[in-house]
What does this fold into?
Amino acid sequence: MPVNSWRMIKSSPGIEGPMQMAIDEALMMAVGSNKSAPVLRWYSWNSPSVAIGYFQSLREEVNYEQCIKDGVEIFRRMTGGGAVYKYPKGEINYSIITLETEELHDILSSYSILCQPIISYLKRIGLNAQFSGINDIVVNGKKISGNAQTRMHNAILQHGTILLDFDVDGMARYLKISKEKLSDKQLESIKDRVTWIRKNISITNEELMQGIRDEYEKQFGIKIIDSIVSAEETIVADRLCKKKYATEEWLWMR
Amino acid sequence: MAMDEIREISAVRKAPNGKLLRIKAVVTEESIIEKITITGDFFLHPERLITDMEKSLAGKRVDDISNELNRVLEKNNGKLIGCTPHDIEEAIKEGLL
It folds into this structure.
């Protein structure tokens, strides 16, 4: 990693999905134009929401009417990958925004490089974690983290979910998992393929964020300094949110 | 003379060791694509290239999907991750069966 000082930003959980996406893109613009050091950002959720991937069809993947009825926000990411049901206790999200260095140029290998500190941390707290497939982290073969990347504005964004808890019923309620109505047995089978940190380990969000920060510092040879989204970045994010991520056009793009 | 029969196809395919494709297409009796929408949990870099890929397939034969998509990807230095142009062509062919 060529840049040896990074920023760490803990965003407020009260920020809604479209604005979270807008903050990620605003930070990409800042990092890509060398106005900012690379960023490790954390965010979580105050209320349930559904995130869909850039290429997904909202109608095909989300129980739209149920979400509207229950007040579950739906937003579209700027990254590919799958739909995720998010709820306050369920997960913590991270974003890494950095420059596209030679080491990170190859997309497939860069997923594994950028996930490695998270994997090391999970191992440190006693979980048998490893990278799996294209963009997942698994523990004993069960998915605990999904990750997605985009590259624009001369920067790389990798954001992902680390599961703290898992609500299979909520997932089945708001996402269209298969064409057939899911039976209890199928729900159990989904539960068998997923795992989460607080299944066996008691840990606070703060401990997790600091632990993963330590691993990034150690493995990438960087110093990570506490930071906030700047006033200028907030203005850019506000504009991106209004003109892109919070629009119906973006939400229903596919 | 009868008009070409138009078929609306809804195809789903899980790419081997990859992602799920959900494709909607309008295909003529002569296997010419009129319109296609490729959705799913795959990755494509840059993302906006999906529109060019879909547009490039309009007027093309189903058998030419893979070649045409490879051409667009190569021309634009695009990277499709989690599925291949071949998977997209196969999904449509399965949908036509």
Observations:
- The interface with chain B takes residues 53-57, 60, 78-83, 107-108, 133-135, 148-152, 254 of chain A (CB under 8 Å).
- The two ends of chain A are 36 Å apart (CA to CA).
